[in-house]
Amino acid sequence: MVNGINLALQFLDSFAFIVLAAAGLAIIFGIMGVINLAHGEFILIGAYTATLAVTQLDLPLVVAMLVGGLITGLFGVLTERVIISGAWPNYVSQRTLGRDIIEPLYDRLADSMVATFGLSLILTQGARIRFGNSINQIATPFGAISYGSFSYSTYRIVLAGVSIGLLLATYYLFTRTDFGMRARATIQDKETAQAMGVNTDRMYMLTFGIGSALAGLTGALFAPVISMQPTLGDQFLVEAFVAVVVGGPSVVLGTALSGGVLGAILATFSNLYGTFIGRIALLVAALIALRFLPEGITGFLEQVRKRRQESE
Amino acid sequence: MSTNSANGEADRSLPSRLRSRFEGPNTIGESRGFWVGFAVAVAALAVYPAFGDGSQLSLFMVLALLGLSLSVVWGYSGVLSFGQVVFFGIGAYTFGVVSINFATPGGITAAVVAGIVGGGLSAAILGYFMFYGGVRDVYVTIITLVSTIVMHTFMAQTAGSEWAIGEAALGGFNGMPDIPLLTLGVEGVSYQFIYNPFPMRIIGIGAFEISPFYYLVLVLLVGTYLGLRALVNSDYGRVMVAVREDEDRTEMFGYNVTRVKFVVFTLGGALAGLSGVLYAARNVYIDPTVFSLLFATLPVIWVSIGGRKSLLGAVVATLAIEYLRISMAGELALVLLGTLLLVTILVLPSGFVPWLHEQAIETRLGPGEAGEADAPDAPSEVSD
After folding, report:
1. Model ipTM?
2. Which of A35, A102, A245 sits opposite B346 (nearest CB)?
3. Which helix (H) or strand (E) holds B202?
4. Per the structure, how many domains does chain B have?
5. Mind telling me which residue stretches traverse the membrane in this protein (chain A) (predicted)?
């Protein structure tokens, strides 16, 4: 039976899942032109850190989750310095060989995918070697709410709230602050931004760090509700990539809109025909969206806006 | 590098005329030395079963066909596809389904064809939607990646008895066992390639058995390699490379870029399908792990480590990496593989084989002279 409240709750759930899964990826892709195939493993780091912080160090859950995001963010900065920009290896090679050995991976989409996939292999297998095939999970907090004969986990509703909050915070950060302005200037025109005194190198590093921290936070937030195994990141990948593709060039707005559209599709089809058909529907929706909106939703909106300006 | 075509056409002997079909700026290896080395390598592969584990090497050679399919699609036409395993898997499953239902020599031969067509057709459908739908660059990559994951989810849930095509149950995670032994021909005139070793005795080595399947795969691999060399050095191959280098400019020259990408993608799908057919035939078994994310990225690893713009690189790297992967079956294998991948793409973005080739030319010609011969990845970006 399709129940109205059920469907609404499932929509919120799907929306939160898609938005959280995609946020970190979208920022790194949209701003740096780097496809991070290790995105799932960044989520893994956040989830494991939060879980271990609770089970081993007895930290309160909220603190543990923030720690998860922070650690992943720092790991992201490290990744950016060593692999993506190659700044640290190049610093060493300048001293020893007298030349750079690594060319930055910015806007080299295919290469960045291959490189980060290598990283992802190392991280997944590293986690398996260090922690085994699974680690103890933390209990889902808050219990459940019930209505009629149904009950629903309160935590999942909280997640929806958190995802909206994160979107708003990211939006604020990138549109209303000085940092956001510099970051956007770097995307639009790196050379001019440099000429105007923006340290673009640092912008890339911070942006990658923020994207990674969001991925880590996603992992930490979902840690109580998914099984803790080294491949846990994989289950976020489909939704994350589809949302980024459908969202288009405007990072935050795109993620929010595609989260809304795809969340509705995912919730409806999963509710009616099961999770698998839901995923297939998601892919088909993405294919159709790309067929008619090759620039994604926000690219389409931008076109409409331009056309309206011209006609006035 | 020699440019044979520039020399007088008349006085060229048959071998050099034959060779010129396979030579051009898009492949490495044009010297007589290269072809001698190539012949020696093929001969070495041909006698290898007398000394080592031919059955394992036949698997690697099957996978090398998959690597070649990605090399053509990605390395020569610039379409990075994580979906080669989709066509590989569809080819394998099609072969399994058809051959289980028609387990006669004629039926199994038809199943091989069906598998190749299945791979090509699925690539054509996906490619049609993507390329004619205006999907470009990295979005193609993402869609192929997502279709791999979707195929994995789909095949994994086909355990129930309702998921059967004729006699063949798809079997979910358990996969499809009992695939008939690969037999080519028609009733009466047929030959079984799997589990049909013929004994050999060579003085000095002793008695051993060789598998006809090994030689079937070797012939197919060498044939495919040479065929693709001829393709990428043909006029069509030049257009493919032009598409890779700059789509817009190629379009401006009047080429139908969309159709080139579509055709190459379909060809790559059919080749991956062939590889899948042989994979299922060799293992007499197929299961959904061929759609897993790790397996999907293996072709990308082989091709980028070997050198994506080099067919030879794809083959050599596939054989080498698969050998490494099998022989260090410990838990560190994946970590090492990941590190290798990371270091290669960062330090040698054009891959090992082109780098070795460059070193070889430099030692032969001496430094300085080799410069213009083939600078692999000269910054091709022109401000526009």
Report:
1. 0.74
2. A102
3. strand B198-202
4. 1
5. 15-38, 59-78, 155-174, 204-228, 240-269, 276-293
